Amino acid sequence: MFTPRKTWHPYVSPFDPCPPMRVKVYETPQHLYLQVQPPNLQQFDPMTALKAGTLWPVYYNDYDGRPKIEEESKK
Predict the structure, then answer these.
(1) CA triplet 68, 73, 75: central angle to 5 degrees?
(2) Most buried one in 19, 21, 37, 56, CB count within 10 A?
(3) Whole-structure pTM value
(4) Which InterPro entries does the record match to this protein (predicted)?
């Protein structure tokens, strides 16, 4: 299933003096999943487009901040 939020598990060294981050999270932009911009896409109204930073809702990603690592590691 498509999700713009991805996770990965970095190598944790046994000699690292810092507490390890076992799961790291990053987000990918929507334009990676559209081959070519299709014609007649739905558009935001002008004020909403200025607030969202894009004219097309398909390219908009409501970034809700950094997720809790504990929740991601349980999946």
Answers:
(1) 110
(2) 56
(3) 0.53
(4) Spore_coat_CotJA
Question: Helices (H), strands (E): how many in the chain?
Answer: 2, 2
What's the domain count of the chain? 1
* Residue 12 confidence (pLDDT) above 50: yes
* Residues paired with residue 5 on neighbouring β-strands, in sequence order: 27
Give the C-alpha separation, 64 to 5, whole Å: 11
Tell me the C-alpha distance between 74 and 59, whole Å.
Answer: 29
């007649």: which residue's tokens? 40
Full residue range of the structural domain in which residue 66 is found: 24-74
Report the alpha-carbon angle 41-45-51, nearest 5.
105
Query: What's the residue count for the chain?
Result: 75
